[in-house]
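One-letter codes give the sequence; the fold follows as tokens. An example follows:
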Amino acid sequence: MNLNDVTPLILTFNEAPNIERTLAKLSWAEKIIVVDSHSTDETLDILGRYPAVEVHFRAFDSFAAQCNYGLSKVRTAWVLSLDADYVLADALAEEIRMLSPSMTHAGYRVGFVTCVLGHPLKWGLYPERTVLYRKDLASYRSDGHAHRVQVAGPTRPLNSCILHDDRKSFSRWLSSQDKYALDEAKKLEAMSFGNMPFQDQLRSLLIPAPLIVLAYTLFVRGMIFQGLPGWYYVFQRVVAEALLSLRLIERKLL
């Protein structure tokens, strides 16, 4: 695959702690589309140092809407959709270059290495995602606080990975998680229990989810053996699930 046929697409809002590390791994890109939600930190100054970056401004309403707007600005056949805290492994660009997709290949999935303040973990909970896809076969939809790309055709996995390395402050993370918890609570309330995925069924029971996450991350995923970064990640996941439980309880009591 000719890398000139691939345009990275990134959403930003106050991503100064992250965005430069992400852009540093995209030196091969002829054009990088950034959709910025009117950042107020140094994000725009950093973006301005990269000639390949083309910034488009849009007030934030949802992640899916931002991504679909970004897709409308892409002029190449393929899109590499990234969060501002994604850092490509060195081998990923070369693996993409070596691809010879047939017309039946709509996209490619990539696995992630979770990092805690720059420290990579051996295991994490971040799921594999479709990040490379044909522009004309893709669109985004909202899913609770998150967003999902829908690709009209088969996708295949790549061998290389992306580092998920968010270095924003804990207070920023906590504020974001509370907003996400409220969106997830609304999503769960709108679903019938029998139609929920098993994970969401556990969450809707209010009490078990944080305790299950504690045991699962510590022992099943082996975080207990990964030192302080592992414990930090465990407590993050438990706090996130506890916030969701609190939001669900709050909405039942009101």
User: Anything to note?
Assistant: The longest helix spans residues 227-253. Helices lie at 19-24, 43-47, 63-73, 90-97, 170-189, 198-204, 208-220, 227-253.
